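Researcher: We're teaching a course module on how sequence relates to structure. For the next exercise, students receive a sequence and then see the predicted structure as tokens, so they can try to spot secondary structure elements on their own. Here is the exercise chain.
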Amino acid sequence: MLVFLNGQFVPEAQAVVPVNDRGFMYGDGLFETPRVCGGRPFRMAQHLERLMRGADFLKIKCPFTPKELQEFAGQLVEQNRMPEAVLRVVLTRGPGERGYTPRADGRPTVLMTLHSAPPPDPPVAWKLVTSSYRIAAADPLASFKTLNKLTHIMARSEAVEQGADEALLVNTNGDVAEAASGNLFWVDQDNLCTVPAGCGALPGITRAVVLEICQTLGLPVDQRVIKPGALRMATGVFITQSALGIVSVAAFNGQPVAPSPLVDRISRAYGKILAGSLVGQND
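Model: And here is the predicted structure for the students to work with:
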């Protein structure tokens, strides 16, 4: 397996990052995980746009342009002969001295790796439980995919210990924010709903695709604040994420979730858009 590290394609075993890299020491960096379909990273431009916005916010100067990163990603897919995969793009502040204060003259680290694609069939619907961990409401860092995901890791671990597949994260206001690995949608009396920006959730790329689908299909989406208990009344709940796409929720906090044909309709439309990326569309 070849990886891309700071402008070079090298075998994975030879890819070395300094022990004083701030991404390793402090989680001082960002990452993106676009799905690769038919040899092309799906919605790569949107992933890189979010990465660059995050870099500007963190004041990390990426040594490559989005166009260069897109070209390098294509070469990595081709050289590894992995037309179906998950691409991980990592940008850190690079090596630095111990301490929280970053150096202005640091050399950022850029790493791209490929990982096995999820199975072609959609996953079995997940069991979702509310986590005891909380995320900050209106946190400006929530707009970016930072390397510090300890809250989400602990929430997922807690969910697995309870026999569930995924955790629902609530913010410090007690409102639903997101799942540990993606954004949340639900159906309320045939109306599709999702959490608005600013509640502590990462505005996901797949979430944006679903909003586009709804606009195309003429389906209004109500972006509203909701308490976890109110989700028990939903007739259809699903999670969006880049690797798996749309994952239905079969149970929430031990109670079954009623299925909704609206979720199936959106899932089919998403599959068609994903397949369209095979011929260079929507990327």
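Model: If you want an answer key for the exercise: The chain has two domains: 2-116, 126-278. Residues 2-116 form a domain with the D-amino Acid Aminotransferase; Chain A, domain 1 fold (CATH 3.30.470.10).
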